[in-house]
Automatic annotation (TrEMBL):
Residues 1-147 form the Heterokaryon incompatibility domain. InterPro entries: HET. This is Heterokaryon incompatibility protein-domain-containing protein. Pfam families: HET. It comes from Lasiosphaeria hispida. It comes from the Eukaryota.
């Protein structure tokens, strides 16, 4: 199976609820789906993968028991996926990601070039500015952090190119220069690719930069990673920290901005005051 990682961008018209559950078991017409979901179905069919997991369809959205059950399965859903399809350039579910890529630029327009491939074949390519300093919309959504971190392979449809990454290789289609990179041997974990090889502080820092529609999801949107970390280390999880590493874990510092020197605490309780998850 494949899984879709995408930005909801608000409520969805087509989702599985207790009222629509039996209807969805019988089938969902492709033309009813938001464009990003429909595009993911098309990618699956092109890859020859028979199943696709999408949260809006595979979780009964108004059933708390089903939500808890499915969230507990998130590690397996993404760790054992054939590939995660990332709608990286989409700001909402209604935005598709299967479209001709343009060449974004700020100063220098793209230059059309005749290039020679390694096979000797002459091809047309473009040299253009790389968009390095701006993140794709999916990079700001908190829920997608664990989806990418747990996946063994990610097929990412970015604004200007198609990017493929796995545990050992990264490749981009749409750039002029060869981009297939074998990751440094020191960076490639040995099978079974333990998530706990990444320092927990690095995970918290990367995750905390992202945004949530509902602040109450602060810990829940990281729960799949925490569950895998627990399985690998046996440590005791304490609201975003680990008991065995607590002296160091308590040394977190919020990112301060000159426009807001004081970080306000949310009105509703979400985590103990000593946890980084207690503030935005």
């Amino acid at each position: 199976w494949c899984a879709l990682s995408y930005v909801w961008g608000g409520d969805q018209q087509v989702k599985t609820t207790q009222a629509s559950l039996h209807e969805h078991y019988n089938g969902i017409a492709l033309d009813r789906l938001p464009q990003a979901l429909g595009d993911a179905v098309r990618v699956c069919r092109a890859l020859g993968v028979p199943y696709l997991w999408i949260d809006a369809l595979c979780i009964v959205q108004d059933d708390p028991a089903d939500l808890r059950r499915e969230l507990s399965r998130m590690p397996e859903i993404y760790q054992y996926v054939t590939a995660t399809i990332s709608a990286a350039s989409s700001t909402k579910a209604d935005d598709g990601f299967l479209f001709p890529r343009g060449h974004w630029y700020r100063q220098c327009p793209p230059v059309r070039l005749q290039a020679v491939a390694e096979s000797g074949e002459r091809v047309v390519a473009f040299a253009y500015e790389k968009r390095l300093w701006e993140s794709e919309p999916i990079g700001w959504r908190a829920w997608t952090y664990q989806e990418h971190a747990l996946s063994p392979r990610v097929l990412s449809y970015r604004s200007t190119l198609l990017e493929w990454s796995c545990r050992t290789l990264a490749d981009s289609y749409g750039l002029l220069e060869p981009t297939t990179l074998l990751r440094n041997s020191s960076d490639v974990p040995e099978p079974p690719y333990l998530l706990s090889a990444t320092p927990w502080s690095d995970i918290v820092e990367g995750y905390s930069m992202r945004r949530l529609t509902f602040g109450s999801d602060k810990l829940r949107a990281l729960s799949a990673i925490a569950r895998v970390y627990y399985r690998e280390t046996g440590k005791r999880y304490l609201a975003g920290l680990w008991e065995e590493d607590l002296p160091l874990g308590l040394c977190w510092v919020p990112a301060m901005h000159s426009s807001s020197p004081r970080i306000p605490r949310p009105a509703e309780y979400r985590a103990p005051s000593w946890s980084w998850a207690s503030i935005d």
